[in-house]
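dumping this here so i dont lose it
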C-alpha cells in the first residue's frame, strides 16, 4: 500500500517510504527477550526441592556407609544450597563425614535436604 504525498513541496516527504512493521521489530524482540528472561527466572524460583524425611536421610546415609556407595548430598549451609558427591566415612554425634575426591566434609544431618 502506498501513500500519495504529492501534495508536499519537499522532495524528502514525497520520496519517503514507510518500512511498515519492520521499524517495530527491535521493540518486539526486546520485549520478547525480557518476557522470556522473566519467565525463566520465575521458573527457577518456583522449583522447590523436596526435603527428605529425617528417617529416610538416616537410612540412605547408613546404606551408603554400609555398602560404600557414592552418593550426591544436597545440603543447606547458611543461605546457600550446596551439592557434593562422595562416600560416607563416619557418623559423629548428629553429623556425617562425607569424603569426596578432593575434600572431606562434616555435615550436620539436619542440614541435609536430599540424597541421591
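and the seq i came up w/
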Amino acid at each position: 500500500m502506498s501513500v500519495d504525498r504529492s501534495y508536499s513541496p519537499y522532495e524528502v516527504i514525497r520520496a519517503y517510504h514507510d518500512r511498515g512493521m519492520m521499524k517495530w521489530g527491535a521493540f518486539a524482540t526486546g520485549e520478547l527477550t525480557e518476557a522470556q528472561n522473566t519467565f525463566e527466572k520465575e521458573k527457577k524460583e518456583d522449583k522447590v526441592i523436596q526435603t527428605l524425611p529425617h528417617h529416610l536421610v538416616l537410612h540412605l546415609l547408613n546404606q551408603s556407609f554400609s555398602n560404600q556407595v557414592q552418593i550426591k548430598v544436597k545440603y543447606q549451609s547458611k543461605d546457600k544450597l550446596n551439592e557434593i558427591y562422595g562416600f560416607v566415612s563416619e557418623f559423629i554425634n548428629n553429623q556425617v563425614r562425607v569424603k569426596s575426591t578432593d575434600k572431606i566434609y562434616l555435615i550436620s544431618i539436619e542440614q541435609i535436604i536430599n540424597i541421591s
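The helical segments are 11-15, 25-46, 54-67.
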